[in-house]
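Throughout this chapter, every protein is written as a compact record of paired, labelled lines. An example of such a record is reproduced below:
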Amino acid sequence: MLGHVMTPRPFFAYLAQLSSSSPRMLDAGLLGLRLWFGLVLASVHGLGKVTDLAKFTAGVATRGVPLPSLLGPAAALSEFVGGILLALGLLTRPSALFVAVTMLVAALHIHAADPFGKKELACSYAAAALVVLVAGPGRWSLDRWLFGPR
């Protein structure tokens, strides 16, 4: 229709529809977040640390971390096993807690003197883990399948 003027009502109704979310969309968002951050954390960051644990632990010791022979392997396992568990949605909240603590230590202690660009990745992983810690794994998770809804 030529000369037809769009009224603001349909536009605002469209914006309202965009700002709403269904439970399925929230579960899909949590699944995407868990899969991406969990699998990348495990494969890109954790795998190399657990396969050469002695080298990683020695590096942790040079950074002044207390109890490096305990905390080094704990950090490596947090990244590798924690990442896999997050992706699966299994033991999700405890895994998210360990990942968040590990990433905050990495950002605030290991990379304390580095520019923000170096800390940003650890902060992003910590933020993703904190979101999952607060929100839970969502409906599409092994926690839900094994233990039922909460």
